[in-house]
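Ticket reopened. Same input as before:
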Amino acid sequence: MKPAPFNYRAPDKLTEALDLLATYGSDAKVLAGGQSLVPAMNFRLNRFALLIDINRIRELEYIRIDGQVLRIGALTRHRDIEMSPLVREHAPLVAEAVRHVAHLPIRTRGTIGGSLSHADPAAESPAIVLALDGTLVLQSRTGARSVRATEFFQGMFSTALQPNELLVEIQLPVAQPGQRFAFEEVSRRRGDFAIVGVGAMVNLQHGRISQARFAACGVGTGPVRLRAAEQLLEQQVPTAALFARAAAAAAAAVDPQTDIHADAEYRRRLLAGLVERVGMRAAGLSEGAKRD
Amino acid sequence: MTELHKIRVEVNGALVERTVEPRRLLSDFLREDLGLTGTHVGCEQGICGACTILLNGRAARSCLIFAVQVDGAKVMTIEGLSNSGAVRHLQDLFSKHRALQCGYCTPGMIVVAYDLLQHLPSPTAQEIRDGMSAALCRCTGYVGIIEAVTEAARERVAAVDCATPVHMTSD
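Engineering reply: fixed in the latest deploy. New output:
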């Protein structure tokens, strides 16, 4: 099908885009990479009076280090994140996960800001930003505010973004010595949305897990922090038995949806398997099972 | 009534100027406004890859981009790649390996394969399979497609190896 008619603006300055958002609010929709929005428009699942195309706002396309923070402009393409030496060095979890985002011709267009704003519960980026306890900068004509990932995601395709706000920057803490990362997912075919995916950070200090951060996609209405697993792991000596217990705790604590791709029980089993696998790998207990 | 937009875009090396409605998909713009029907439309949701083109040198789905967005950009379609000879050998290898049956997916397959080999001059077997999964074929079962791209990659590596001493002496 073809989209319903709409008017179109493509400002090349952030301030112009924010002015348009202030004027049109929920009558307008922001178009970033369009890899989720345009299919929905083609199917007429949504329609808008005005499409604000932000692709010409080059000031939103960057990856840079600022002290202990990795700053990623919201318009940065998944492909550019994948190829970035800065991301590989300072946010290895992002580098590993982004290669699972769809196919190359999708990653050349799709943006991290678009993916986070869309908040698809099966998408990788929201889970990763949640696992890394990232901060999102939302800007409107009247100012900017920082929202932690834990508060940003508010359920199925729902975020803290107000109709007059634009997500402009993603801030991630730079990887510290001792922190190890892993991401894995299960999908029917390479490039498909994950049925379930899990990202993990495990901080090993003197043979113990000083800090664990686990987040998953595909097991709830949004990305889900696996706090039950984290609490079980922290301050413990990493062993296979410990990760098996953490996996069971994570699976017991989630409330996955049943849909045409998988039922809730299957998703719970996948989650347990993935928590164990990424946990073991992050803790250096296994190098295998990395499928790519 | 929606506002119309005048766009200037370089398509296959030639500058074209048209007036478009914002909702005009790039795939429809290429096929219907410019008559470049080599770009096929399968799913209009970015899954099948039949409409894959190069936008400013990068592979992209033309069904997920509005024509109005490519004002000032460079678009390369299968016609441009084919007429310049850039994919001639890939096309021959697709023929040799029976990498098509109905042929509907083939333009997208060729663009995806060309883009893959541009980014990964010597891809592994797994990288070829992963890369080519960006386009769907419902006839062949992919065996011939993978063989064609594998042979193209192998020949490229051989050609680069032969050329290396020349580069070294000329430096």
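The longest strand of chain A covers residues 196-205. Chain A touches chain B through 31 residues (CB under 8 Å). Please confirm and we'll close it.
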